[in-house]
Amino acid sequence: xxxxxxxxxxxxxxxxxxxxxxxxxxxxxxxxxxxxxxxxxxxxxxxxxxxxxxxxxxxxxxxxxxxxxxxxxxxxxxxxxxxxxxxxxxxxxxxxxxxxxxxxxxxxxxxxxxxxxxxxxxxxxxxxxxxxxxxxxxxxxxxxxxxxxxxxxxxxxxxxxxxxxxxxxxxxxxxxxxxxxxxxxxxxxxxxxxxxxxxxxxxxxxxxxxxxxxxxxxxxxxxxxxxxxxxxxxxxxxxxxxxxxxxxxxxxxxxxxxxxxxxxxxxxxxxxxxxxxxxxxxxxxxxxxxxxxxxxxxxxxxxxxxxxxxxxxxxxxxxxxxxxxxxxxxxxxxxxxxxxxxxxxxxxxxxxxxxxxxxxxxxxxxxxxxxxxxxxxxxxxxxxxxxxxxxxxxxxxxxxxxxxxxxxxxxxxxxxxxxxxxxxxxxxxxxxxxxxxxxxxxxxxxxxxxxxxxxxxxxxxxxxxxxxxxxxxxxxxxxxxxxxxxxxxxxxxxxxxxxxxxxxxxxxxxxxxxxxxxxxxxxxxxxxxxxxxxxxxxxxxxxxxxxxxxxxxxxxxxxxxxxxxxxxxxxxxxxxxxxxxxxxxxxxxxxxxxxxxxxxxxxxxxxxxxxxxxxxxxxxxxxxxxxxxxxxxxxxxxxxxxxxxxxxxxxxxxxxxxxxxxxxxxxxxxxxxxxxxxxxxxxxxxxxxxxxxxxxxxxxxxxxxxxxxxxxxxxxxxxxxxxxxxxxxxxxxxxxxxxxxxxxxxxxxxxxxxxxxxxxxxxxxxxxxxxxxxxxxxxxxxxxxxxxxxxxxxxxxxxxxxxxxxxxxxxxxxxxxxxxxxxxxxxxxxxxxxxxxxxxxxxxxxxxxxxxxxxxxxxxxxxxxxxxxxxxxxxxxxxxxxxxxxxxxxxxxxxxxxxxxxxxxxxxxxxxxxx
Length: 915
Hints:
The protein is α+β, with helices and mostly antiparallel strands. It is 54% helix and 15% strand. The strands form four sheets. The protein has a six-stranded mixed sheet. The longest helix has 42 residues, at 331-372. It starts with 7 loop residues before the first helix and ends with a helix.
């Protein structure tokens, strides 16, 4: 190197300057690739965090809540003022809950917004119903809690007056004392939310008189109406106090309407007066305690720890004055559901992206080799002037490192700025691998083609390793937890390695199979006069295509097909789940009168209606030999049910009742009674019955538990004739857009007394979850990445062979090769290998789809108990492969066009100089 007259630094700078344009392109590619690799896990985690926050915010049961049966906060303790009464009533419990909050570990302490909230609710007080209201019954419950008036804003009137309790705690005369029978209780002041006052038809200032448990009545005066403040809505207090802010309307199967509301009553004497007006023995007073849960601060990174801390809070009773309380919350289950979807997303996308990611690294290495290829003569001179091969490789490696490492770091930093998320140190392994690929390619150097024996041993080793990995993955992993690798908290490495190994094996098979397929074609084409097909097919049968490009093409086709198969499988699964959940196109749950059923049958867009009667939640089948089974009984019209469930997977088949014969029961598989068992059905009346068959599920009727179904005619014959409690509707199949109109009409007609669910809404709910969107988007990106990698591989392969090909074309031109014939030569050079790789890659994609369904739990996306089966859509697969073929064909045309641009004389002259 000293003889060259240049030091290492100057020589390195000179090489970088000579190839500045090529290195700039590679630096840009490394930067973008590094950013994409760094964004990928951040994007998945952000999607899961968004879904987790949405799910927690949408649920009304995430606040850790306790309704202790043995705890009574003394809201009737003697006190001179309302403020003092609150301090007396809540003081000890407030201090305890505050201490529990402050002692909680992070992140639990951070998501519990307030130290603790609580409320006391009295029993039910029946109100007189205004005439002509159409309401069967009205009632209120007293509600008092700390700082209620600070959390609401008055709409009309003034706050209720505080009623002090005398020190001897006697508000009423004692039975047997003078004046007991003649006593008149003073008016009791309450406040209602504006919604509750409207539902109860109670204007401010009006009094209503109710009976008490004593010989006198109680006058109740509404002094104010209120609504929650925006701060209360945001803090979650309004969610826990929803029954104070909104009335509850219930309906019986006989169309009775009952309205109940919570009324704010200050602690002290007012609560005692309202307690005296509670004449019901089965509606006790109770206490409600809760910690407001702040979902907006939860992150998926801390979700697992938070779920465990919440379970610890639930499992360990909290000591309070006069005992202890146990909290409940649905937050851990919600976190588990979202975590399951995140793990499934990671597993699916990891399986899909593993092979193209490996190919991408190979392509980066190949690109670096292509960049320095024009300088191979100069590198040969360096060796001739004293540089060892190791020194030359070190020089090239340093050259690549100066370009790739800063670009990879810049890409990682850019990704961090674009998608803020919790940064795991392992996430930098991706940019590090991207930077290392071109560096290692040049630093290690190409040792030429391996000897046949070495290559054969290597291929056999790869094949055995692939077989071992695939068998281990199929036999050691089972569907049933949340996703592959769930036990370890991450995606199983086998899921990442196996697809790449399979792609390598497919490429090796392609290389060995290609000559055997092309040789017969070449032998037939030699008999023709056209030189190009004969020469092209002969060269194709003798040349071994580069392994890297073959892997890339096979992988591109495989991941494109896998993306389409995975998307179709998940989509098909969630459609099945929606059908099974709803049980028809639309389900309405409400007490239905004959007029309601007639209205449903006449509703525009409705093709069929099946009503469902559930007379009792607890029916019993007594077998003749003694065993009994208790279950929820549903009665339907078999013909109507079959009509509305024509498109429902696993539709329930209910036998038609024969007059005078025993009722034919369909029982759930967990009922424990074998088919053919005879006995008695007890559902308010006894009637003979026989178990016709067992079923795994009852779509539209129930989702779980022990259940039974029977023809409604069998109950009517036994003297049980009750109105239906729900109905299943099918929409005109020729007008699917009518579903939205039918749902809107149902909600307008039935209002609050009905719950309406539709298949379309359920599909949208499952499909629009952030993790589901991330899965679809990720699969689309991986598919395009695979096709892009195939195109780049073809271009790099053709670019690497561009100079010898151009010399060959130039020589053939001097011998009379027609213009544009070089395109046909390039096609013969690349088309057989690419075509075979595309075909085998497509088969590999279908196989990876089957592997995906086998080793990855997709149920979190569909909400079903059963794993969805693989779904193949011929049209989608055809379009996907057509897109891949088109992209590769375009790349071949571009390469052929670039080969034909150079002058034959110039090429031949350069070739002579080189030789």
